[in-house]
Amino acid sequence: MTVTFSDLHKESGLKALNDFLSGKSSISGDQLTKDDIKLYAAILGEPSADLYPNASKWYGAISAKLAPSFPGKAVGVRIGGAAAAESAAPAEVAAADDDDDLDLFGDETEEEKKAAEQREAAKATTKKKESGKSSVLLDVKPWDDETDMKKLEEAVRSVELPGLFWGASKLVAVGYGIKKLQIMLTIIDDLVSVDTMIEEILTVEPINEYVQSCDIAAFNKI
Predict the structure, then answer these.
(1) pTM of the model
(2) Residue 71 φ then ψ, to 5°
C-alpha cells in the first residue's frame, strides 16, 4: 500500500506524520528504508520534540544514520520562497505492493487552525513565565525592641504576588536588644520589582505597624 504524505511544511502535515509514526521506528517496518530517506528529504527541518515527539525521534534516528556518510562540517542551509514549497510537496512512499493510496492529510480545518493559535499563545505565555529569576536576601528592621518579631514576619510573608516565593528566614541581632529579620525570597524578574514591593507594600499600612524599614542585603541572578 502506498502512503501519501503532504503539507510537511505545515503543522497539520507534521501532526499527521507524528500520529502515523506512533509505535513505529520507520515508515515501512522495523528498519529504515529508502522510504524513510525520501520522506526525510521532504521535511525542511527537525520537527519539534515537544509538539511531534514521534516524528522528532524518527528524524533524529535518520540524521544519526546519515551522519557517518557525510563527515564534513555543515554551515547550515535554509530553503526559502518557491523552493521551500516545492521541497515540501507531497512525497509518495511505497510501503508494499498494494496500489491503494492512503491520504493521511486533508486541508487544515478551522479547529486545527484554532488549536495551532492556542498552542502558540500558550508557548508565548510559558516563555514569559520562564524569564530570568533572582535570589534576594532582605533585611527587615522593626521599630524597636518591643516589636513582636513573630507578627512582623507573618506580616511580611502575607505579601503574595505572582512570581514571588518566600524562603528561609532568621533573626539577627543589631544591638540594644533589637533584632532584624533576614528573609530569603526568589522572584521572577519580569513579574516582581523588589524596590516597588518595599516602597508600596512592606513599608506602608498595615505592615508598617511592625516594619520600620527594608533593605536589600543581597541580590543574585539565578
Answers:
(1) 0.43
(2) -75, -15
